[in-house]
Queue: 3 jobs
Job 1
Amino acid sequence: MARMKFLCDADRCIECNACVTACKNEHEVPWGINRRRVVTINDGKPGERSISMACMHCTDAPCAAVCPVNCFYTTADAVVLHSKDLCIGCGYCFYACPFGAPQYPKVGNFGSRGKMDKCTYCAGGPEADGSKEEYEKYGANRLAEGKLPLCAEMCSTKSLLAGDGEIIAQIYKERVMKRGYGSGAWGWKTAYRETIES
Amino acid sequence: MASFGRFIRLALGAWALLVLVTVAPASAQQVNPTASAVKEQQLLQELNRVQGRVSIPDQRSGVLEQPQGREWRDFRNVTLPWIGGIAILGMIAGIVIFYLTVGMVRLEAGRSGRTIVRFNAFERFVHWLTATCFIVLAISGLNITFGRPLLLPLMGLEAFSEWSQWGKYAHNYLSFPFTLGVVLIFLMWIGGNIPNKVDVEWAKRGGGMIGHDHPPAYRFNGGQKMIYWIVVIGGGLVAASGYALMFPFYGTGIQGMQMAQIVHSIVAVLFVAAMIGHIYIGTIGMEGAFEAMGSGEVDVNWAREHHSLWLDEQKARTGPNDGQPQPATAAAE
């Protein structure tokens, strides 16, 4: 089985937000929640870079480690998923996450944040693959259909890469070699404790 | 000569042009667009977070990366269970040893059969309001820290999740009456809980816990004053930090909430340990003590042994004829 990862080539990202839109539409993500977003650093200044970020599906995921009810699980593809039936909406994953991935439908309401929602790597949840229940809670399960996450598939500049970590790292390395520069795989060191030498 | 000079200038100009045309594109290719680009590791080292601008309405999602959740995770999964375990189990072990070796603090003079009002109905209501809320809050709070390793394997994922869900609701909603109770306790008993010289003497004699010593005390002795300030300060801290967690992003970011959780949980486990001690001394630890918060009236002999100065005050207030002739006023010493 592959070890699925995301990689955003910041030197290619043009902040078009197609990944954000694709994700919201594909999964009918609730109002107010963005499973993916594009952050622009040094906006308008020389050296500005945009990075598309969602759940990185960390190795030894902090969210899973701190969850008081153990609602997270890791699939054979190393995708970090959770059960909304078990989630109690305590907010602990959201304190532990380095990437701001976990979100709650009712963040402002005391006592009732609601069930946590985050990027599923287009891999649904614990319900039967492709079932109506799975779609309602977690969105589409593209991985079960043999497809990769839609955000990366839709990326207009092929900045956002999704797939087996080794393969996307190889693609990125080749790009860096060919063009002679690269600002690195953002978030990889934090998420996977490794980075791509370039 | 003039034509030769013109030829040289022309030749030089042509050569310069050639150089420009051939070299310039080559040098343009060597421009590194990342030379001035932001670097992830550099940003993380400088600020310990990476933050930028987002075009979606949720501006909080502008924080791209904040790895300090790792330290918080370590606190939550390793440090806190150790602090809590040592504090709570240590307190229970201490009580068990004390109870087995010294035993219940008895009423030395026995019961006189006459009682004196110690806490009125309102005081008892506030105490029990706070106490019942505290017990539910403590159990549901400890469940968040210790439930996953201890209870989940016994209950299974679904049942444990259901129980924790109700625990969370109870924890959040009972925080309001609990906070009210702490505020009322603070206002209601502040008068008798300012530390004074009597407490120094009381502390020097170990509160009279061992042997047959009965250091004098007003309405609240040194130990009770300690409990009072633990409730007021500890309760204030857990309430403030708890509300910061209950209302996310009202004045705090993720880092602020991590800090709030650290304060909340450390104060809470120490608070629980202190309250276990308080419950012990108020029930099986001391004969005649529970009545103070039960019926509100204590035996006069209990008052004489444990709160002699308070009893004197009360007698002075109600008049000497109200009480039976006391065998020995010197019992206070």
Note: Confidence is low (pLDDT under 50) at residues 25-29, 325-333 of chain B.
Job 2
Amino acid sequence: MTAPATAADAYPGYLDCLADADEYAAIDVALGLLDAGLPAERVLLDLVAPAQAEVGERWARNEWSVAQEHAATHISERVVAAVAAHARPQPTGGRVVVACMDGEWHALPPRLVAEVLRLRGWQVTFLGASVPAAHLVSYLRRHDAHAVALACALPVRLPHAHRMIEACRRSDVPVVVGGRGFGADGRWARRLGAAWAPDAPSAAELIADERALHRVPPAQLAHLADDEYASLVRRRGDLIDSALADLRERVPATRAYTAAQLDSTVSDLGHIVDFLAAALYVDDASLFTNFVGWLVGILTSRGVPAAAVDLSLRHFAGVLRDFPRVVHALAQGRAALLAADGRTAA
Amino acid sequence: MTAADVRDWDPGDGRISTPSGTRAPARSAAAPARPAAARPPLAPDRGQPPPDWSEVVEHFREGLVVCDADGVVRHVSPVAERLLPEVVPGELLAAAGVPGLSDGSAGDLTHRGRRLTARRVSLSGARCCWYVEDVTESVSRADALLAERARSAFLAAVGDKLGNPLHPDRAAAAAVRLAVPTLAEVAVLVLAPRSGRARWWRAARSDDEAPTVDSGVLASADLPAAVADGLTGVEPHAVDWLVKQAVDAGWLPGLTGAESAARVVPLPGGDAPVGVLLVARRATRWYDEDDVALIRAFAARAAAALTTALLYRDQAEVADTLQTSLVPVEPAETAGVQWGTAYRPAQAGLRIGGDFYGSHRLPDGGTVFFLGDVSGKGVEAAVFTGQLRQCLQALHRVESHPARLLRLLNDALLETTQAHGQGRFATIVLGVARPDRDGGITLTMAGGGHLPPLVLRASGEVESVPLRGMLIGVVPDPRVGEVTVRLAPGETCLLYSDGVTEARGGRRGDEQFGPERLVTAVTGCQRMPAPALAERVEQVTCDWLAHGDHDDIAVLALRAVGPSGRPSRHLHSVPPPAGSDEQIETRA
């Protein structure tokens, strides 16, 4: 049997290595492709990236545990390191800092961007997962950077992302953002006034175009003046408490929850409030409806009925009836929930 | 033309009615009680002779030019005569050649160096009258005000941009970028030379609003004389040869010496200038006094930003060096052991804190490893961890038995803290890992008042290792706990600091994460590689914190991976992740 020479041929075998948590075999597959003449950038983007996306999908479908997902991600990181070490690019360009937003742990996509930039001659510093804004700023003051690339996989981090973007801007370093957290078309990046790149190659092109980097439209956040976002964030604890009390009253089974079950319910309710807050921050109810659709998928694959989510959405709509944008987003979310539930039921 | 002629004219637009003798009495009668001083009547008192309208009109600020139906000038008031000397009664107004008036378009015009406004009013009998006013002074006052406002707005924007401490290179690039286009078409900032080399940044105006910025280095001997003078604090005045020098240095793309104006101003620093700013633009706009004042004000702000940045850089270099020596060192590669670490100091801007971990290889193939937490936070605590690690570095060479090593460490620390009167103490788990023949490892651990380690068994069970003991560095001869744990291949031992279990979060942000949640979080993770496990613990802790404040967080995981059935060549083909020094900062 000959070794596969294209990323598409190698892909199924590579996924099996991830499933078996076989670090060495996975590295063999990737290095084999390099030996067969495939450029390092293609190995990263056509093999490692889609495999990692599949890992996420398998977790969402409850086919893989969190532990398997973490193990697979760790192996992907080792593969990226091996491919990067094999390529050994010589830096010719300026310094680019790549980091995950504060609270963002999906470090592999920005790691791939970092390696693609390195392969294209940039001197890249990868700061890793969940980088606190203060740490990033102090880094930028100590090391001159041509640009900062910030990744955000979950839109719930957008308010924090905005703070980080502003912090970089105050350091006068241009920012490029990417990741699914900014919306499939990057619409929320535009809302926050940040240059957005859909993938690693376009991020590299944007970073190479200095004038495009400096030509960024201002943020459009005038809607924050209505104070709905700030009020929601202030009331987060109360909202979770009251939603929990409401659940206990309406669904007697929840009264017998174990501590761990209670924690995960609290964490789910917290997610609902946080995504709602993020939707208010960028003034786009679709952020919330997308989340509801995703949540229903996650919960139904784990045997939790979508009706429980609707109960809490209805509760929040009642408590927050004085906030027109919240009420609108919740109504849209409930409609999305009905639609998603119909799909999974059918 | 007589006064009577003037009186009988009607402006003709219906808005202004000419006062007449018949209306004057009515007006006086209507307001008889009004004191004359409050509002002098326009019309003369009854019984007085009518005013000489010609005389009144001639004292208007506006000059009058009256033309007849054919456009021939019939009357020119003295003011108009002064403003428009070419307009002569009896001639066609169009023939006078005054712009605006000639072609009949009213509005603002510049004539003989004066700014005039002209308005045309139709009179009866197809005649017309031009009212011409000299507005030179009010216009220049308004212009000066606008210019002053623009300058203030510019300086405010500059202060805003340069107000944050920046990296010196950033500050220099930002300064030249801000100077274009307001101050110059090309702006060059030259920093004071360091070891014989001067770095420069240049911004040049391009088609759209964003100027292009580039930079370079010159030997100090090659600096243009004017720039070298500027660096001594002298502002050069011989402007003509300045442009030539800048052109010769290749700094002024698109500008030639003959048609350009340039200025050099020093950037005032602490004792000597931090650099100089050279601005140049086409000679269609020379630099006047106001411009130079603005350039100096700009230079002062740029200089302040640069001085701050340079100061920060010098301080940061010192801090960086010290921090690097205090950042935990990743455990050394050990046969049969896979290490995983996570480190997140309480102060996000700092890479160091009061938690520490590390390892030292023993000559007999074993490895000493430790994780601990010293009292206090921040830099002071980090310095103490440094002392502690150095102690261990030295002591493990004379004693490799964990409990005895811990007692030695206690004595050493006690002596240091008593000598310095610091009263510092530490909690620590210190162990020795020795590989077994079957691919497992035997851990002998000593406890100094630290949280008990967890062991992830291959069966999926998570055990808490019973390890007690007293704080280190408090009393002589403390009680030290001791325990031996065997890890089969694929089993993991997890050490963590109280930053994990005491993380405050949850619904209200005040609930402790606690050991139970930690156990739940790592349950089912027995197949995870050690680095992934350490990162998971860090992640669930940070998720629990939800951006809240936290204590230092440190995690150390050891996994028995065996001499490995796999050939080891791949282990060597995979170097630490590229830029692994930065990876450490990440954890910070």
Note: The CA atoms of residues 251 and 553 of chain B lie 52 Å apart.
Job 3
Amino acid sequence: MSIAIYILVMAGVTYLIRMLPFALFRRKIKSRFFKSVLYYIPFAVLSAMTFPSIFYATGNTVTAVIGTVVAVILAYFKLPLIVVSVAACAAAFVAGLFL
Amino acid sequence: MRKPFSRGMLHGLPIALGYFSVSFGFGIVAVQSGLKALEAVIISLTNLTSAGQAMGVAIIAAGGSLIEMAATQLVINMRYALMAISLSQKLDKSFTTPHRLLAAYGITDEIFAVAAAQDCKLVPAYMYGMISVAAAGWVGGTLAGAVANTLLPVSLTSAMGIMLYGMFIAIIVPSARESHKIFSAIVIAAMLSCAFKLWLPSVSVGFAIIISAVVASVIGAMLFPVDSEETEEETE
């Protein structure tokens, strides 16, 4: 399938999700259950995307796990996104030099 | 007081710097997944979102269906609908429908967070200033990453494949530390996603993530419904 069609679908859906509520919505969501689901969605999506994919992200499970552990520790201490991201990469790179 | 456009640009600068490093990782992953640098740049320019793009590239690489593409983007980017609703309450009268159609493009987690924190009504020029700088950082980082992939040694670029996930961890772990509710949802989603990979590898990666995330969120909503103050907070 043509990559252009993939990109068109991807960009079209993403834009509509942002645009329709922004342009049309004039009131607030009331349902507590629905609001709760929406509250958890971003965290659940990021978690499901990260695990287990992160363990395959460097092409070597050992370096990927080392990078993951470094990222989790630094994130636990609330370091900025860039620091966590670069440190995970650096840890995986350095680990790779010894393997 | 600065003009709204330059004030927006100033507020967009730290966002752009953060975006650059993350989209650098995206550019590398995209090229490693078989896309051309130009295609990666067009994806970043037209989508302006990290998780959705990473998923989209994975689906393209796996030759997934367009339905899978549309469904994953819908679920992954659903949070933007909520942010758009929230921002729509804060718009100045000058934010007419054409301006809304244009500015909607730039509703991202970080731009939403900064715009929502303003104590005045939002005018279009302010949003355009912030969005243009942030988008330039996002697209520029993608291009740099895609080009660097061919220039840097493989040992380095393969390690860079972890950067985008490192950012996801940096987003979810601090929230999990503060809230056992979020921690539970994150753990359930991760376990389901790993279970799909281990025991149901025939389910495509996009659907596995949608199902894992929605089931985890519904379980979270049933076990720990949240109060309205919590949902008002920006989460990512």
Note: Residues 127 and 147 of chain B are 30 Å apart (CA to CA).
